[in-house]
Write a structure and sequence with these properties.
Elements: E1 16-21, H1 25-40, E2 44-45, E3 54-59, H2 66-75, E4 86-90, H3 91-97, H4 100-104, E5 110-112, H5 120-128, E6 133-135, E7 157-161, E8 163-164, H6 175-178, E9 183-184, H7 187-199, E10 204-208, E11 216-218, E12 224-226, H8 227-234, E13 242-246, H9 255-263, E14 270-272, H10 280-285, H11 292-305, E15 310-317, H12 324-337, E16 341-346, H13 364-387, E17 393-401, E18 407-411, E19 417-421, E20 430-438, E21 442-447
Helix pairs in contact: 8-9, 9-11, 12-13
The structure holds 5'-deoxyadenosine and iron/sulfur cluster.
Length: 453
């Protein structure tokens, strides 16, 4: 058979599946919910993509090459015997490209957007009958109501999407177009899901949203609440030990949420609060609607409420028109905040976003150089932050096995990974350790002789 031929359509209903999620934590969450839904339908997971009868590529569109990557992944799903699995493209590339995907890659059977994946079972049936199975609707009724309840989780940590979408329209960002407008899930739906996760063994929940701290809703008594109210309520769930949230926008950092960091013990001392740039002209061109100073004032107040809080951020270098001096302001704000960790990216023009058409697109070499300088500074701070943990006694929640026998990996309250060798301990244990050494990306600890409460 010619390599360029499209492998024939699978001719039986899929019994096994494999979900491959790219990009953000919300995609990981969506991938898990898809898997649970297919499990409910009697399908079983397969470890390898090519072994599965159905492969779902849960794609990300935030930066360049995502689309090309999807097409090359599709090509790689061809099996040695010339057959292929049923292929679904889900996530933000599916939303942005729609049926263009199945036109360009004939072996794609299903295209399903991030707000429509609760309809996957129907789409699988349609594809099985050889019908077009494309669904990029953003229905008003939430997909969450149509998904099965959460099942027992393999790990003691879980994500829980509490709001989706974004109304901020930063000029570089594709999210408001692929994930739609901001929608908060209801108080009850969130609490029910959290309780189901905890009953299934989860001890730490990370609340998710593109602008998670913009969450609003009515509580059980009909009072309007913000995310701080929700966090306080979740903290009452007995066996839930830790609460985290990501990603936040500086403008939605309410007084109540800042105060909660000082008052709610289960709310972990970690805040991912992206600023993107340290220069006010660039921030304005990005439509961020905050300044470098107003951001720094928020950081100051958060640190007053919770002095040991670890901060994290996102940065974009080489936004259109960014001068050397403007980039220096980004280094300056990093120096002022001293983040525990950061994500930094080269600006990537996204089709359909305002910044993609702006003058002054920055050459690749300039972006490379700026990114290298920024990352060197961020790494320096990250190493200093980790080194400062040596000698500290802290609780870690054991999440997974390490590479060596008897080794387990857990996280500190400040989201640092800690390796411990402790054959008598198990995943899911909260254990007190003494930190004995630190690297750039993880720490090593020894169980302290005094048992954690
Ligand atoms: N180019 C580069 N980085 C981007 N991000 C979002 N859109 C782009 C883009 N077009 C980054 C931002 C955001 C993170 C999730 O991805 O820093 O906070
Ligand atoms: Fe994108 Fe800005 Fe919304 Fe974040 S706040 S998802 S960067 S538009």
């Amino acid at each position: 058979m010619n390599r360029n031929d499209t492998p024939p359509k699978p001719d039986k209903a899929p019994a096994t599946f494999h979900v491959k999620s790219f990009g953000c934590q919300m995609n990981v969450y969506d991938g898990e919910r898809m898997a649970e839904m297919l499990g409910e339908r009697g399908m079983t997971p397969a470890a390898e993509g090519t072994d599965a009868d159905l492969v779902i590529l849960n794609t990300c569109h935030i930066r360049e090459k995502a689309v090309d990557k999807v097409y090359s992944d599709i090509g790689r799903l061809r099996r040695e015997d010339g057959t292929r699995p049923m292929i679904a493209v889900a996530g933000c590339v599916a939303q942005a490209e729609g049926r263009e995907i199945s036109r360009r890659a004939r072996s794609v059977d299903i295209v399903v957007g991030p707000q429509a994946y609760h309809r996957l079972p129907d789409l699988i049936d349609k594809a099985g009958r050889g019908e077009e199975a494309v669904d990029t609707d953003m229905p008003l009724a939430s997909k969450f109501g149509a998904l099965p309840a959460r099942t027992k989780q393999a790990r003691p940590t879980a994500f829980l999407t509490i709001m989706e979408g974004c109304d901020k329209f930063c000029t570089y960002c594709v999210v408001p177009y692929t994930r739609g407008a901001e929608i908060s899930r209801s108080w009850d739906a969130i609490l029910d899901e959290a309780k189901a996760l905890v009953e299934g063994g989860v001890r730490e929940i990370t609340l998710l949203g593109q602008n998670v701290n913009a969450w609003t809703g009515e509580d059980g008594k009909g009072r309007m609440q913000g995310m701080d109210g929700l966090v306080r309520e979740l903290a009452k769930v007995n066996d839930l030990k830790r609460i985290r949230y990501t990603t936040s926008h500086p403008n939605d950092m309410s007084d109540g949420l800042i105060a909660a960091h000082g008052e709610v013990e289960k709310l972990m001392p970690f805040l991912h609060l992206p600023v993107q740039s340290g220069n006010d002209r660039i921030l304005k061109a990005m439509n961020r609607s905050h300044s470098a100073d107003s951001y720094l004032r928020i950081i100051e107040r958060v640190r007053e409420a919770r002095p040991d809080i670890a901060l994290s951020g996102d940065f974009i270098v080489g936004f259109p028109g960014e001068t050397d001096a403007e980039f220096e302001d980004t280094l300056k704000i990093v120096e002022q905040v001293r983040y525990a960790q950061c994500y930094s990216f080269k600006y990537s023009p996204r089709p359909g976003t305002p910044a993609a058409d702006m003058d002054g697109q920055i050459p690749a070499e300039v972006m490379d150089e700026r990114l290298a300088r920024l990352q060197a500074l961020i790494n320096q701070h990250q190493v200093a932050f980790n080194t400062a943990a040596i000698g500290r006694r802290t609780d870690i929640l054991l999440e997974r096995k390490g590479r060596h026998p008897g080794q387990l990996i857990g996280k500190t309250p400040w989201l640092q990974s800690v390796h411990v060798t402790a054959p008598d301990l198990a995943i899911g244990d909260m254990v007190e350790v003494d930190i004995v050494s630190a690297g750039p990306n993880s720490l090593a600890g020894e169980p302290s002789r005094r048992k954690a409460a």
